[in-house]
What we know:
heterodimer, A: 565 residues, Helix Hairpins, Rossmann fold, six-stranded parallel β-sheet, 18 strands, 52% helix, B: 4 helices
Amino acid sequence: MDSALSRVLFLFFRRMRTPLIVLILTYSISAIGLVLIPGTDADGNTWRFDFFHAFYFVSFMGSTIGFGEIPQEFNGAQRLWVAVSIWVTVVAWLYAIGRIFTLTQDPAFTRATTEARFIRSVRKISQPFTVVCGYGETGVLLVRSLAYRGIQPVVLDQDQLNIDSVQLENLGMDIPAFCADASVTQHLVEAGLHSPLCRAVVAITDSDEVNVKIAVTAKLLQKEIPVIARAGVKEAVDNLASFNTDHIINAYEVFGEHLAMTQRTPSVHLLHAWLISLPNRTLQPPVTPPQGKWVICGYGRFGSSCARYLESEGNEVTVIERKEEKAPEGSIVGRGTEAGPLISAGIRDAVGIISGTDSDTNTLSAIMTARELNPDLYLVARQDRRADTAIFEAAGLDLIMEPSRIIVWRILPLITTPLLSRFLRLLRAGTENDAWQVRERIAAVCGGVTPETWSFKIKPDETAALWDALEQGETVCLEHLHRKPSNRDRMLPCIPLLLARGDRTFMLPGPEMQLRSGDRILFTARAGTRRVMDWGLNNPKVLEYLVTGIESPDGSVWRWMARQR
Amino acid sequence: MNLEKVVFGFFILLALTLNFGFVLGDIDNPDHHHAYELWAAILVSLIATVLKFGDRSHMGAVLLATSLVADLQLIMAAFVWAMATHVQGGTDAQIMPSVVSLAGGALLANLASGVLLIIETATLRR
């Protein structure tokens, strides 16, 4: 691992060979010249420099241009030699120093130093970290979300501009970032793949091929580290699945799925936003796009996924696509930004429009034109670039779908709280009614702001008191954890979402549920509740009070007195 | 023939021969040990060291180490000589045994360099 640093040193020395030899030669020749040339003192006697004084004189001659004539005044021959020597040594110095500066500007040298610095900063990380490969739209959002949650990211990206922007972002932690091809094994290793602190590798570059390569490398080198990869086309998805990539996220599918969700199970879509969001943000209101005839502008991978999911929800879908060869049967060929194609697609009697083209400008332009033609339309737009957030918000849309945000919704809980990921999966498979009930309970508990969602496992180092109590055969129910340590008749504003026991999972476990060692529980609660609950989980006395209502005295004297009573 | 190898071998052997020439003679007789020869030995030894910079092979690392030892010994010899005659005001004859024995140490290191160079050349089957 030191190789990058030693490479820097070797490169430095190798390039410095010539200037160093030039310096040594000029200095020693100047010195020997002084020793060889006889001098004349004031009395006309001949004297000679000895090596010691010659070395001394030459040492300061080059840098001070002859500070003075010592140990005695020089004669003509000596002055001539010193004049030549000054020129030669000064030039030699300039040459050597110039070489050092050129070397520090050398691309190979700067790259080697940045690499060495990157390796060092990765090795300095003392908390669990996640390797994020690809710092595009999704990568930026993911890294930011991870940093806000206190999880250390390490970034690899092929574009130096992206890497520079990592350093410019102020995320409250030092994020090691390196400009390199993440699919090269060495770079993944340098990013900390072999570190015991590496928690996950996320491959979200723009290229499916690179993502597959990253996933293969990570899986081969470190079997136990979870790999999360994004894929766009089916072949890549199948390829990733073939070597047990832990989580494959098909951006386009996920996008369509969420769009369909807003119609069939709006609560499920909303719960994604609520549970994954940082605590204490305003709760987003539910979105309910109407059912009926929809117009889709742009039939790329996003458009086709939307059309498929909308049709499966029983909507009538008409597509407007610019390129004839891409357009499906029965669609209108033309530009969605013009009134003509929109009218022929039946925009006047449609309930909504989904606009998602390659350019955000065209996307918004299509929306504006459509609204002119039919002011009652439900407007859905796909936002491609985060930088355009302001204009999308100003456009007065009913629903903005940001693919990168939705992908981060899927990735984030996998890294932060895997149990939440499982809960959301169960929600997606469940009915709207179930999700609606969860939503109502959360809204009631949290009072208008987003909840804090976390999970813990009943084990000695996480929940010491609870573990001990259960190991001693005491019965602790879920409801005991809900009680307030300050007054057990009051309840904490929290909801247990999921309890995992071995392979079994219990959705929304009831208060009477008995706990066992090794259980993993997912809670959502008003922000700040977690700290209060941790008290009971780790303090045996508080736990005893929560379970039995008895405040047992501590200290042997008080205990003895309590027994006497 | 490789010019780089010629220059490299030349300086290593020259460092060895100059060093040997300086050490040769009665250890306490200043007439047998000339300052010019020590100066030449230091100069060539320094150049030989710089030539070994940046060689990442194992042999290169050992050669660099022996060369640094030789430099150190020779510079110590020159330093001791200058110290005794110019700072403490002694004579050449008094200090000569120390100077020559320090240079003799450097001779051993240079000898090691030379042997390594010969071994490397001998194992090269081309």
